[in-house]
Amino acid sequence: MSTFPKRWQKRPSVKFFNGFSLTNGDHFFQEYLHQSDYTVAGFSYGAIKAMQYVHNTPHRIDTLQLFSPAFFQTHSEAFKRLQLKSYPKNPARYTQTFLTNGFLPCEQKPVEIDPHASLEQLEELLFFVWESTVMESLVRRGVKIEVFLGVEDRIIDVHGAREFFLPYATVTSIRGANHFLQGC
Question: If you average pLDDT over residues 43-47, what whole number do you get?
Answer without folding.
Answer: 97
